[in-house]
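Continuing the batch. This is chain 6 of the set; chains 1 through 5 are on the previous pages. Same settings as before, nothing changed between runs. Recording input and output for traceability.
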Amino acid sequence: MRQDDAIKDIEITPERVQAWLVEQPELQVIDVRETHEREAGHIAGTRHVPLVDLSDQAASIDPERPVVFYCRIGGRSEMAAQAFRASAYEAYTMTGGLLRWVQEGRTLEPAGGHVADH
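Output for chain 6:
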């Protein structure tokens, strides 16, 4: 498999994440941004594990269920997804991050939330 194919396979669109959350509410969706970014706005029903804490929290992420990571634009979440795939998780990164989520008209919590600068 070419590297481009591996990257494509790891990416999942915000549209698909939103649909997947409806289909499987138990889907693990993890925000890997910093705390101040999370507080400014996040996807409802998602978990927060800052990227710097992810290795310490790995045992709390169920390896039997898919996990989608997201961040502001997708760089940090891609690193997280690659690391978890290396440990045999079914892991994905949300393409375009929270910026794309909002640009495509999806809402954030809390009401009036926004995408904070990194």
